[in-house]
Amino acid sequence: MTLQSVPDLQHRTVLLEEAIEALAIEGARADGIYLDGTFGRGGHSRLLLERLSPRGRLIAFDKDPQAIATAQTITDARFSIVHDSFATLSEALAERGVTQVDGVLLDLGISSPQVDEAARGFSFRFDGPLDMRMDTTRGMSAAEWLATADEQTIAKVIRDYGEERFALQIAKTIVARRAVEPISGTRQLAALVAQAVKTREKGKDPATRTFQAIRIFINKELEELEIGLDQAFQHMAPHGRLVVISFHSLEDRIVKRFMASKANVPQPDRRLPIRAVDLPQPLCRLLSRIKPSDAEVAANPRARSAVMRSAERLPAPGAT
Length: 320
Ligand SMILES: C[S@@+](CC[C@H](N)C(=O)[O-])C[C@H]1O[C@@H](n2cnc3c(N)ncnc32)[C@H](O)[C@@H]1O
Hints:
Blueprint: H1 16-22, E1 33-36, H2 43-51, E2 57-62, H3 65-71, E3 79-83, H4 89-95, E4 101-107, H5 112-116, H6 142-148, H7 151-162, H8 167-178, H9 186-196, H10 208-218, H11 221-234, E5 236-246, H12 249-263, E6 284-290, H13 294-299, E7 307-313
Parallel strand pairs: 1-2, 1-4, 2-3, 4-5
Antiparallel strand pairs: 5-7, 6-7
Helix pairs in contact: 1-2, 7-8, 7-10, 8-9, 11-12
Bound molecules: S-adenosylmethionine.
């Protein structure tokens, strides 16, 4: 079955109302420019468009060609879609002559259609090719990487991005097996990992951590998150909102540290004769940390690990 012939699987948007509320698209802010860095199937984007005035604008991004195909069905003049990482947002804004935005939303990770489609290779629940690329038009697949990377590198990726205790044993098993046959399928990899993982975590498949790690590595998820946050903040208008939904602790730690670094700017030694007005001022105000309600998790178990953080860009001292 080709990717094109696969029916459009559904994505259930996590923290839909909460994320759009956090962007505070009200009053004059409804005329603003907003970015959705992770369009997916457009759940957040569609509600955001409903809240915008006729003068507002939404620029969305996604790396996934199937997400782009869905976005191209939206015929709203206020909306445009960029087939690229949100880590290229500065470039995309420059191309459109935009210098400042009023809000940026990132709903990180992968969408349900990506996980549920065997041909994408994200899940060991289905047998499929070990691809795992969000952007299937470029870059190296997981199978290509596992065929060539050295044992130490494979172990490091699985340890760092999967927080997996048996990373070295898994890497050794992979390297030994690939001398016999190529490692090209999801179930094949899951079975190899299960051989190497000696203890079982309750309610967790032994391959979960390894699949998460390889996916994060192949898609450069953490590097792009750091770059995307930085660029989003550089372009944020005074009172602009940054709203990020994370699905695992590695992502959430990056978001938390980033927001804290803008909210708590280093202060000089208090013994120095510096006037209060000349002290470095915080660049943002932390707004909230929200988790999905029990009802949302019951209706959509994939929401269970979600954490949403939001922050507001503060105007320069003296400005409004
Ligand atoms: C959780 S889904 C977003 C779902 C979306 N909010 C909705 O309601 O339909 C994450 C999406 O972000 C995309 N994505 C993840 N990292 C990305 C990045 N660095 N740049 C652009 N798109 C990214 C994935 O391809 C996926 O389609």
